[in-house]
């Protein structure tokens, strides 16, 4: 799951950047990123001098997506199921970032992988990444692999390479 959470970060950053730059071409970082973060996220970016979306973690990227949703919707059509996908990814991230001593039940793990697939599909991931996540979900549902294992269903693409060059649609 952590591999897919990392890939979700890459997908989110690549999807967001061209769109946020259209919101405020001169000052997009301050108006569409920094002002949308929690105090802790904001301070972390300031302390670490992070100035690119690639420097944000998944929690911050999802927050930026969610908090800019309506402004972005004024630039291009954004269906509600895509916003729902952001909320589901936030839930997946929280689940896996704060695991208790036991793993979630199998049905939740399958749902979480499904949420990753939906997020990838909705926000422009390359088909290779989407298919890889689908294969992982099928293998896990059949019991061919476990969450504790590090399965190799097929050679993993280089981290972050499963993304298309997704440009925003014009409204």
Low-confidence stretches: 150-157, 159-171
Query: What does the average pLDDT come to?
Result: 88
Q: What is the CA-CA span between the terminal residues?
A: 35 Å
- State which percent range the strand residues make up: under 5%
Backbone CA Rg? 16 Å
The helix content is: 55-70%
Number of E-type strands:
0
Which features characterize this protein?
mainly alpha; disordered C terminus; single chain; globular; about 170 residues
Describe the structure.
With 171 residues, this protein is an all-alpha fold. It has helices at residues 2-23, 28-33, 39-47, 58-67, 69-73, 80-97, 106-122, 127-142. The chain is globular. Mean pLDDT is 88; it is low at 150-157 and 159-171.
SSE blueprint and pairings:
Blueprint: H1 2-23, H2 28-33, H3 39-47, H4 58-67, H5 69-73, H6 80-97, H7 106-122, H8 127-142
Quick structural summary:
This protein has 171 residues and is mainly α. The protein is built from 8 helices and no strands.
């Amino acid at each position: 799951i952590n591999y897919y959470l990392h890939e979700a970060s890459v997908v989110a950053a690549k999807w967001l950047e061209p769109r946020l730059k259209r919101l405020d071409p001169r000052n997009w970082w301050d108006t569409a990123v920094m002002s949308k973060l929690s105090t802790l996220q904001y301070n972390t970016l300031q302390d670490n001098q992070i100035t690119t979306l690639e420097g944000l973690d998944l929690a911050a990227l999802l927050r930026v997506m969610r908090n800019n949703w309506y402004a972005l919707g004024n630039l291009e059509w954004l269906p509600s199921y895509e916003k729902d996908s952001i909320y589901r990814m936030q839930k997946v991230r929280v689940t896996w970032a704060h695991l208790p001593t036991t793993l979630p039940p199998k049905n939740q793990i399958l749902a979480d992988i499904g949420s990753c697939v939906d997020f990838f599909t909705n926000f422009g991931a390359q088909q290779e990444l989407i298919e890889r996540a689908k294969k992982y979900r099928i293998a896990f549902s059949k019991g061919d692999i476990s969450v504790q294992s590090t399965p190799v269903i097929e050679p993993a693409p280089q981290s972050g390479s499963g993304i298309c060059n997704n440009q925003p649609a014009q409204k």
